[in-house]
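Hi R.,

As promised, here are both runs. First protein below:
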Amino acid sequence: MKDEYIALVDGEIDGAKGGMMLSMEVKKDADPVEAMMQFVETVSKSMPVDSITVTFVKQSKKEIPDYYVHPPMAKMTAEDGSVMSPTGPVWLQLILSVEVGKEEEE
């Protein structure tokens, strides 16, 4: 069995901002925080950006009281806190957010 997370990846390069959503599965016997940190390291090394923020969320098909609104997605969020997915509305639960600043090479 596996736990499924969504990684919301936001990056900035030369003042331009962009983002993407990636699925991440963690085996039940693995430490999810360790897996998330390895994921952040892999993504930050592979993206040519000045800074990167990776926010991990879980999806719920039922409304949850402590739903998370990802700031770049605020305009796409309904009044009840849901966002539309291909299978219908889902609510996001914040698990972990990590910001990584890239150092300039000299």
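And here is the second one, sequence first, then its structure tokens:
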Amino acid sequence: MDSLRDDMTQVVGDELAARYFVRPVNQSSALLFEEPSFEVPVRVLRQRYAETGELPGSAALDSTEVRSAVLRLYRVDYSLASRYEKTSKREA
């Protein structure tokens, strides 16, 4: 992620990369828990975060259904990333 702005500059140009990829905007936490939580209501996860500062880690949200939903929702992003990766490797 450290090179995201540099990488995106090559894709969208310096002006857009500087505007949208200079700093991370997603809230995150150093405190993660891994017990299965993919069927836990969001309000319960928010309450846990408010009380403990913990967020579910990747394993906590991993299930076949979740993977399928993510792949479906981000199909275009995965395609773009794949094309970019192939182009980068050819240029290297």
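A quick note on the second one: The first strand starts at residue 31 and ends at 33. Let me know what you think.

Best,
J.
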